[in-house]
Amino acid sequence: xxxxxxxxxxxxxGRDGGKYFAVVEADEKYCLIADGKSRKLSAPKxxxxxxxxxxxxxxxxxxxxxxxxxxxLKQFSSAE
Length: 80
Prior knowledge:
Strands 4-3-2-1-5 form a five-stranded antiparallel sheet, covered by helices on one side. The chain is of the alpha+beta class. It contains one helix and five strands, in the order E-E-E-E-E-H.
């Protein structure tokens, strides 16, 4: 599955391993991810795509705030 803007991913490596993020931007090797708490939409984290797992879910990032993003991603972490 290809990474698109708004894809929900789970970090598998690093200090944020196990947390869910939304993809803000992506290219062939890296993507920018945000969760609205530790990584705001205004300052996303650059992550190697080898270190994330893509889920089947998408989030519409148009006109979304950090608070709304946190609430949406909270559903994914509580589903486990």
